[in-house]
Specification:
Blueprint (H helix, E strand, L loop, with lengths): L1 H28 L3 H52 L6 H27 L3 H13 L3 H41 L5 H29 L6 H41 L6 H9 L18
Length: 291
């Protein structure tokens, strides 16, 4: 009995000693449960951080896109005001250009609404690119409208000059019927008519070319704008300059016919009649430097 009791006590003590040595390990590892909990916490934290980064990135894209769109709409509104205040443009021309500008504004506002409603950064980033690829406001649309305005202004100038040609022709015919030598007068007027024909042909061709420029084709538009600007420079600096010179010659020639011996009151009246029409350079066709 004593031996059995001693054995039991020995076994019990050994069990206690074993339990005390093993339990700390079980407590630390919890049969792997704590490690699993730690791993889950880590994954959740990573997911939370990723979600925060995604949310911040999305908001940054939306904010940046709104700024880009707002700047472009501001430029387009200024361009619309420029068109409306241009006294050389007809009502139809103003209406047409303003309609084109408003179409661009409407498109940008629609795109802004879509970007604002985007729920992920990937989609928002794709939409943001359309601000540039679908609406080349600075590179294409703005210079396109400005060049069209310049062409229309030049066409108004040439129309005003053209209206003087039949009046001058009638005056030349009158002097011719009086036996005056109008050879030089006729040559100067013919040169004016020739220059006007060249100018009008060029302006008509360039207007058609510019109107056909697509706002989504930056490279093609750039080459077209360069060529048309060269045409307009030629018109302003050369062709209109020749017309101005022809008018000066006409004034001198009319003076000689009216009073070949000196200045008289009738000469003064003739000078008043023969005032050279104003021929000024049209507004710059360069796009604004709005960032």
């Amino acid at each position: 009995m004593k031996k059995s009791t001693y054995s039991i006590i020995t076994i019990g003590i050994s069990g206690i000693i074993f339990a005390n040595s093993v339990l700390p390990a079980f407590a630390a590892d919890n049969l792997g449960g704590q490690k699993l909990v730690n791993q889950v916490d880590k994954v959740q934290k990573q997911a939370s951080n990723a979600a925060n980064r995604q949310s911040n990135e999305l908001q940054n894209i939306i904010t940046r896109s709104n700024t880009l769109i707002t700047n472009r709409i501001t430029t387009l509104n200024s361009l619309s005001t420029r068109v409306q205040n241009d006294t050389r443009l007809s009502s139809d021309e103003k209406s047409s250009l303003t309609s084109d500008i408003q179409t661009e504004i409407n498109g940008l506002n629609t795109l802004k609404s879509k970007i604002d409603a985007d729920t992920d950064a990937t989609t928002a980033r794709t939409d943001e690119k359309q601000i540039i690829t679908n609406y080349y406001v600075y590179a294409v649309f703005e210079p396109k409208v400005r060049i069209l305005v310049t062409i229309n202004n030049l066409q108004t100038v040439t129309s005003n000059i053209q209206a003087l040609v039949p009046q001058l022709q009638n005056l030349i015919n009158t002097y011719k019927s009086q036996g005056k030598d109008v050879t030089q007068l006729q040559a100067s007027l013919d040169d004016i008519s020739s220059q006007l024909q060249t100018i009008n042909t060029t302006l008509s061709k360039d207007a058609t070319t510019i109107e056909g420029v697509s706002v989504s084709s930056q490279d093609t538009a750039k080459a077209t704008f360069t060529q048309v600007r060269e045409d307009l420079s030629q018109i302003v600096r050369t062709d209109l300059a020749k017309i101005r010179s022809d008018f000066e010659q006409l004034r001198s020639q009319f003076k000689q016919i009216v009073n070949p011996n000196g200045t008289t009151a009738s000469e003064s009246a003739s000078e008043t009649t023969m005032t050279t029409p104003s021929v000024t350079s049209s507004p710059s066709t360069s796009p604004s430097t709005t960032p």
